[in-house]
Design a protein that fits this description.
This protein is an alpha/beta fold and 254 residues long. The protein contains 12 helices and 8 strands. It is globular and about 60 Å long.
Length: 254
């Protein structure tokens, strides 16, 4: 998936609010590239992450997770469960972004802590059978770092955040952006859409890959954001399902 992002290809994923291995399998069957476990607001435990990641590995879809911020102890626990990418919420400054990268990368690129049950400095299953040098290099090269912009401070600092070495993708949180602008719950407000579109353009101009989430009503503005430069689209299953059921009932007239 990271190679596709670096090439500028479209990448698609599913954001999961709860730890359901079957939904991971459905995402793979739908032809998506990744799943993202919401460890910021969802009811995840390390054990449930372990099972969900195993489902992803079996179904050949990339497992990623969202975290509320840079908490190195929790970050390394997720990475040791073989999560392949982390999305850091509420990134406001280049310092925030740099701290996120450091928490994910092994030295010399970061300060991810080491352990040695497998002899490779990490618990991750994919490290088994590799020599330590190859395992560390692979982890640093392939693990995805995503920074989410969710308020005016982050929007103002997009160029600096995008310039931080190791930041692979910049995403936008329209709900929090809307709230921070005084339009709580109204992600469709023209000023919110303008702010997000402008942010996508500036992040793209700075050389970053850009992502956005797509929920119910998403088709009304997702194409606009893709035109602005977004290449990583994450679908949100709950609003999409609610919208699909409503449309199906309308089509049936019941």
């Amino acid at each position: 998936m990271k190679e596709k992002i670096l090439l500028g290809d479209m990448v698609f994923g599913l954001g999961l609010d709860s730890p359901d291995p079957m939904m991971v399998e459905y995402a793979a069957l739908a032809g998506l590239d990744f799943v993202r476990f919401d460890c910021e607001q969802g009811p995840y435990t390390l054990e449930s992450i372990e099972h969900a990641v195993r489902s992803a590995e079996a179904a050949d879809i990339v497992p990623t997770a969202r975290v509320s911020g840079v908490e190195p102890g929790f970050v390394v626990q997720l990475l040791n469960r073989s999560v392949s990418g982390l999305t850091f919420a509420h990134t406001r400054t280049a310092s925030d972004a740099a701290a996120a990268v450091r928490s994910v990368k092994f030295a010399p690129e970061g300060d991810r802590t080491l352990t040695s049950p497998s002899g490779h400095g990490m618990h991750a299953r994919w490290a088994l059978g590799l020599d330590a040098e190859d395992a560390f290099a692979f982890a640093n090269r392939e693990t995805l770092v995503v920074c989410t912009i969710e308020d005016p401070t982050g929007l103002a600092n997009i160029g600096e955040i995008a310039a931080v070495p190791g930041v692979d993708v910049i995403t936008f949180g329209p709900n929090d952006i809307a709230a921070s602008m005084g339009y709580t719950g109204d992600t469709m407000h023209p000023e919110v859409r303008k702010a997000v579109r402008d942010g996508i353009k500036r992040a793209t101009a700075a050389g970053a890959a850009v992502g956005i989430s797509v929920g119910s009503r998403g088709a009304e503005w997702a194409a606009d954001y893709v035109e602005a430069g977004a290449r990583v689209l994450q679908f949100l299953p709950a609003p999409l399902m609610i919208d699909a059921v409503a449309r199906a009932r309308a089509d049936l007239g019941v």
